[in-house]
Every structure is written in C-alpha cells, then in structure tokens.
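ok trying again, last paste got cut off:
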Amino acid sequence: MEPILLCGLVIVVFGLWVEFEPIVKAVVKMIRNSKFFKGIFVNSAGQNPVYVNRMPICLAKPSSY
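nice, full thing came through this time. structure:
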C-alpha cells in the first residue's frame, strides 16, 4: 500500500476510535456487569497448585545447552 494511504487510514481509524470510545467502553462495562458474564467466569474454579515435598532430580539439575 502507498504510504500516504496508510497515513490516511491511521488518521481515520484514530478519529473513529476517539469518536466511539465512550460507546465501546459503555458496552464493554454493560457486558462485564451482566449476570451471564459473571456466571461464566466467577464460578469457574481456578486450578490449585500441587505442592511436592521433593523436586525430581531431572528438574533440579540445570540444563546444559
């Protein structure tokens, strides 16, 4: 693409973002506060770490690359 076309495209995209940023943020906030969204992500249990008493020897040695 021509450099002047790319510069114009960047200017247009930036202008559209400035124009519609409050609307986009409001929609995202509404989605994040919805019961459906909270039901999916709040109830998903995180993976608990497994604690081991001793580290296997193969993992304790530094790799020699």
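cool. The mean pLDDT is 79. The CA atoms of residues 54 and 60 lie 10 Å apart.
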